[in-house]
């Protein structure tokens, strides 16, 4: 989704009272659900579960987008299992266009990391080299991290502490536990 289209959709959701913008402690903006938006959660979860169950696994892999996947991962990190210190993780998507092939997560203690496709020029503590389809499969619960590593779909390099805890803090999609009926 282009930034222009995303901005338009967010404005529409705000105009309809589903989202509101709040300033964070560091003067950034964050979208949060309003009371009306929170009431939609059950509907959205039901639609997501239905999609995971009934839409072809192949469709999920073919319609993946690096940016959307990375931001979904950011939202679902198990930060309580992440080592409590500053760290930088780089994800390199093999076979992806240059503009979306590299993403950086900048962790600062217990806060959700900053994420983006622009090199922050910081030392990288953990590298993940994979393909978009391989990370999508793991994210959706179609393959475990251990299976992805064993099959060389994931190549992790960096600090042993971060590699050892990777499976505990990276998380999975909210729909990973939903079994597909189309596989």
What does this structure look like?
By secondary structure, the chain is of the alpha+beta class. The chain folds into two domains: 3-53, Arc Repressor Mutant, subunit A, CATH 1.10.10.10; 59-169, Nonspecific Lipid-transfer Protein, Chain A, CATH 3.30.1050. 39% of the residues lie in helices and 23% in strands. It is built from eight helices and seven strands. It has helices spanning 3-15, 35-39, 41-54, 57-62, 66-75, 132-139, 145-150, 160-169; strands at 19-23, 29-33, 86-94, 102-108, 111-116, 126-131, 155-158. The strands form two sheets. Strands 5-4-3-6-7 form a five-stranded mixed β-sheet, covered by helices on one side. It has a two-stranded antiparallel sheet with strand order 1-2. The longest helix is centred in the N-terminal third of the chain and has 14 residues, at 41-54. The mean pLDDT is 87.
């Amino acid at each position: 989704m282009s930034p222009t289209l995303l901005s338009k959709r967010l404005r529409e959701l705000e105009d309809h009272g589903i989202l509101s913008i709040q300033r964070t402690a560091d003067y950034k903006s964050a979208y949060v659900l309003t009371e009306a938006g929170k009431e939609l959660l059950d509907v959205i979860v039901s639609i997501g579960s239905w999609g995971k169950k009934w839409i072809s696994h192949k469709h999920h892999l073919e319609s993946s987008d690096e940016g959307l996947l990375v931001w979904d991962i950011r939202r679902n990190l198990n930060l309580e299992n992440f080592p409590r210190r500053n760290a930088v993780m780089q994800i390199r998507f093999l076979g992806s266009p240059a503009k979306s092939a590299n993403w950086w997560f900048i962790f600062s203690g217990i806060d959700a990391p900053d994420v983006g496709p622009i090199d922050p020029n910081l030392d990288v503590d953990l590298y993940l080299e994979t393909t978009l389809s391989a990370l999508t499969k793991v994210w959706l619960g179609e393959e475990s991290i251990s299976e992805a590593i064993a099959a060389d779909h994931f190549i992790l390099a960096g600090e042993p502490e971060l590699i050892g805890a990777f499976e505990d803090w990276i998380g999975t999609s909210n729909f990973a536990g939903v079994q597909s009926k189309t596989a």
